[in-house]
Amino acid sequence: MYMPRTNFRRSKFWPRRWRLRFLFGCAVAVGCAAATVALRAQDKNPFAGNAKDAKLGESQFRANCAFCHGLGARGGGRGPDLSRAQKRHGNSDADLFRTINEGVPGTAMPHNGATQQGVGMTEEEIWQVISYIRSVQVKAPAQPAGNAAHGKELFNGSAACSTCHMIQGKGGRLGPDLSTTASARSTDYLVESVRSPSRRLAQGISEAMKEFSQEYETVTVVTADGTKFTGVVLNEDHFTLQMMDTREQLHLFEKDKLRSLEKSRESLMPAHDQKTLSDKDLEDVIAYLLAVGAQ
Ligand code: HEC
Ligand code: HEC
Asked: Which of 266, 210, 214 is CA-nearest to residue 237?
């Protein structure tokens, strides 16, 4: 009679439960070993402190990153200032490597090799870029500029930012949620946003997901029955317009049913000059925004 030998042996010497445990154990061991190797390779920058590599990193940075992070990595309208000593997603070499290689999902920060930006840097090139970032990184100031506690009071009180902006779920909705804005933008950009809001309008809600994003343009429509609404554009295509009016009501219009539709690049956010918000107070508000973003 044919006896399935393996089966017999297995059931005799390797009871099923043991076998599974053994296999599981092996898988874990192999998995851990692989993970350790991968992490080892990414722990330390082989080019740390090397000026020549930092220089090579700089040209990579110009080509792939400056578009969002600004020249000199000082930040721009679409990406944070990377010369800040305190990084939101971790300060170590390994953290930087991971952020640059994997991107920050749900934000505009692309992963290495993302098709649109066509980055696809090698491991060496990523380390060179990190050398470059370290070379422009400023020492952490002993005391961060501005008084965040006072900034919070202003934001919710006399400066009335919270009437239009939400932070961590509280506040108005006409302007963008500012919970993570500061940590994703340069300080210069924030100052300009408050002093001259119309110069560069904020990117719309779905910015991260879109290649060409909608801006917070101001729109005024007059409906067929003569009602007028002013607000910000939330979304738009050839036939429809989605907007939020200044009373935070959402509207979806079919364009060909409107009596008129006018858009302007004049922000609905009032420009705050020195009289409405002194430099010192603005610094405090920004300190508050940064403190919130760092959480
Ligand atoms: C399309 C815009 C864009 C491009 C291109 C881009 N970034 Fe970013 N990057 C961002 C944004 C936005 C963030 C902030 C994400 C968030 O909200 O935390 C960010 C975050 C980062 C951070 C984390 C900062 C922190 O505080 O932790 C690093 C480091 C970084 N980027 C490096 C790079 C490098 C290096 C390149 C080029 C290889 C690059 N980025 C290309 C938009 C971009
Ligand atoms: C009347 C409503 C209103 C008030 C009050 C207001 N904002 Fe705004 N804010 C907006 C709108 C609308 C936008 C989007 C258009 C633009 O970029 O100017 C905006 C944009 C911004 C941006 C740019 C965000 C980005 O992602 O680019 C910042 C920063 C900002 N506001 C900060 C403030 C601060 C700080 C205050 C208080 C001193 C304030 N705002 C008061 C309506 C307002």
From this structure: 214
Give, for ligand 1, the residue of 42, 56, 68 to mutate: max count of ligand atoms closer than 8 Å to Cβ: 68
Find out whether 65 and 80 touch, Cβ atoms under 8 Å. Answer: no
263 token code pair: 């858009």
Rounded to whole angstroms, the Cα distance separating 129 from 142 reads 26
The whole-number average pLDDT for the span 231-242 is 90
The pLDDT value given to residue 27: 54
Q: Which residue has the tokens 């917070």?
A: 216
**Which residue's CA lies nearest to atom 11 of ligand 2?**
175
Percentage of the residues of the chain whose pLDDT score is greater than 70: 78
Segment 237-267, tens digit of pLDDT: 899 999 999 999 999 999 999 999 999 999 9
Atom of ligand 1 nearest to the CA of 130: 35
The closest alpha carbon to 134, from 73, 70, 64, belongs to 73
Whether 139 shows a pLDDT value over 70: the answer reads no
Is residue 75 within 8 A of residue 187, CB to CB? The reply is yes
Q: Indicate which residue's Cα is closest to atom 42 of ligand 2.
A: 269
Higher pLDDT, 162 or 116: 162
Cα distances from 2 to residues 9, 39, 42, in angstroms, run 14, 50, 54
**Structural tokens at position 153:** 């009071």
The amino acid at residue 13 is: F
CA 155 to chain centre: 22
**Would you say 245 and 132 are in contact if contact means Cβ atoms under 8 Å apart?**
no
Burial class (CB in 10 A: 0-12, 13-18, 19+), 118: exposed
CA dist 36 → 27, 111, 126 (Å): 14, 22, 20
Q: Look-up: residue for tokens 């390797």?
A: 14
